Model the fold of this input.
Amino acid sequence: MRLLRPLTIVATAAAVAACAADAPTVPVSADLAASAARAASPSAVEEALAAARAATARYHRVEAAVADGYQLASDCVAVPGVGGMGYHYARFDQVDFALDPAQPEVLVYAPRANGELQLVAVEYMAPGVGARPQLFGATFQDGPPGSGTYALHAWVWKHNPSGMLAPFNPDVACPVADVAAAAEHAQH
Done:
């Protein structure tokens, strides 16, 4: 299990570098996420998103997430000109084919101006084999490079102008040192 965290950090850094080099190739476009969400019953999607919010309300303090087994899995992820995700705290033992809106595999925290972390999104992950799963009316996209997963973000705690299910949020920023470190790490 210890090996997964360094691999995830490297994979995330590689994703940041790849996206920065070719920003228009963001894994999920806002249009794709929006059209997928429209394809599902609006009331069913809203109920599932409400379940995700209710289940994760206890994790507004990152210490509560850590106490429940979530582990820091990435530096703060952001791509200049696209937006950020934040710090990912993951439960790798939950990555399986059983997707439940009330049990996200990853919690995403963004840094506030005072340095504290704010819960902003959840992320669902599934093994990257077979048909891509769907949740909230959206089809999962490839997870971080090298992770062998499919993933889907849901910005249930912070408005995302790019869409509820878009991977990056233009209103999330990372400390400059984290972005530079991730890009430098990806080059090695």
Residues 59 and 169 are 20 Å apart (CA to CA). Helices lie at 4-21, 30-39, 42-56, 62-67, 176-187. Confidence is low (pLDDT under 50) at residues 1-38, 179-188.
